[in-house]
Amino acid sequence: MADQANIFGLRSADFIEWVASNMEKPLRKGPGKRLLQMDLIQDFFNWAKRNSTWPLHFGIMCCAIEMAATSDPRYDAERFGIIYRSSPRQCDVLLLNGPISLKLRPAVRRLYEQMADPKWVIAMGECTICGGPYYDSYSIVKGAYTFVPVDIFIPGCPVRPEALIDGFLKLSEKIKHERRGWVKTKKGRVVSSREGELAEFEGAYTYEVH
Amino acid sequence: MKPLLVTIKQALATAPVIGKRKPVTVHYPYEKVTLPKAFRGQHEIDWYKCIGCELCAKVCPNECIYFEFVEVGADSPYLLPPRAMLDETKKLVRRPAVDIGHCLFCGNCSEYCPTDAWMFNQEYEHADYAREDLFYHAKELKKPDQSSDKKAVLFNRIGEEPIVEGDVCIGCKKCERECPTQCINMVDGPAERKGKPIVVPEFDYSKCIGCQQCVDTCPVDCLHMEEVDYTDMKGFYNINFADQVSLLEEDVKRRKY
Predict the structure, then answer these.
(1) Tell me, what CATH number does B195's domain have?
(2) Are the C-beta atoms of residues A50 and A175 closer than 8 Å to each other?
(3) Residues of B in contact with A130 (CB under 8 A)
(4) Domain, as residue range, for B56
């Protein structure tokens, strides 16, 4: 029985729990269960997911200018369903663009946790990937992958708008092969295509250069 | 009335059939923007020209260039310029590898390369699924042998030359072994040991490229680099100055809208 909670006053963790117990559980229990497991329905949801990767409109540093340039008429990113939303609740992709300082790190983690499942993270530019020119700094996090599971790394300083679109296309490729479980990198290595994880191969997920 | 007319004029100018202006959107995955010639994308190293002097790793602001030892055959063409940095077996060459995920794409490596071995091609689609795959090994950055013109150039672009302090030198000859251009000749110095004079390096500055390998390897710090000259970019291979260079404003003016 659904209890009439004041859902607007809930904290995010409580809200997710409430949704799981009151909406998802009855849906999976009832006649919709078999429908959800059908391949055709899953493929339909997959198609919808990969063609509407809405990133969070969250600019950290100069790569955000390229993010803006990507959605301008010249490189019209909305052709691929890349529509910037201002609230993490409406987003699928956390687009990180710039060096993340120690002070910003909890905020970024919080944004990631506020986003509804399924969610992906794109690290754009070298500052987000590994700290970039501030790799020696006391205040810069050495890579966004140390605290959020990054799915796509786009190197460049800054990233070209086309390269960002290419990153989003590669993300949709990854979502497309979600059921298959693996996807090939540019060098031909096989990695996991599930959101927020990499297949267990030799070497740890976190990568430290020499 | 006037603003309305302006709006209508603008609307007609961009209309598909009537207007003269073409659509501005570039349909990216199918057609690509022509990039400027000097655009710096993926690194490319000409193994015929590279002498493994590690100057690129020294000038890199992010320190994202690592040198790898690559084993080649005894009759390999990469050994042929006798400037290849070798060990005693003469079968190893040093070639750069780049961590693309850490690279600033500033082009310092290409600018200071004394042999013009560094290039940047137009590839910019580096996006990948794993951090490990952004590290490009030396063999992956190698330029295809066919596209190399195999022209050897040596140019001191950094404008610095090593100076020796003769009385500190112990005559270990490490610098002579390490020098990629073999411009060091050991001559008798001022100091003496057991009645014999200690050898000190003498530099042939016409061949020196200012790579600082001798300074790095010196065990007693008797060498230091000194700025000698401002060198202009004349003869710089990677940017073709012979072509006409136009400013963006001129370029925009020339376009017909």
Answers:
(1) 3.30.70.20
(2) yes
(3) 99, 101-102, 131
(4) 43-147
B72 and B165 together in one domain: no
Looking at the fold, whether B122 and B61 belong to one and the same domain comes out as yes
Q: Look at residues B115, B147, B179 and tell me which one is the last residue of a structural domain.
A: B147
pLDDT digits (tens, 9 = 90+) for B97-110: 999 999 999 988 98
Please report the pLDDT score of residue A200 as a whole number: 46
Is residue A166's pLDDT more than 60? yes
Beta bridge partners of A140: A101
Residue B237 vs residue B21, higher pLDDT = B21
Q: Residue by residue, what is the 3-state secondary structure of B122-167?
A: CCCCCCECCCHHHEECCCCCECCHHHCCCCCCCCCCCCEEEEECCC
A187 at B interface, C-beta within 8 A: yes
* Span B197-209, average pLDDT: 87
Q: In CATH, what number does A54-161 get?
A: 3.40.50.12280
> Is the Cβ pair B127, A207 closer than 8 Å?
no
CB count within 10 Å of CB B170 equals 16
Residues from chain A contacting residue B101 (CB–CB below 8 Å) = 126, 129-130, 153, 155
The answer, for A170 touching chain B at a CB cutoff of 8 Å, is yes
Residue B47 sits in the same domain as residue B143: yes
User: pLDDT exceeding 70 applies to what percent of chain B?
Assistant: 85
Cα–Cα dist B78/B85, whole Å? 10
CB A57 within 8 A of CB A85: yes
Three-state DSSP class for residue B225 = strand
- As a whole number, mean pLDDT of residues A75-83 equals 92
- What is the complex's ipTM, to 2 decimals? 0.82
Domain count across chain B: 2
CB count in 10 Å sphere of residue B71: 9
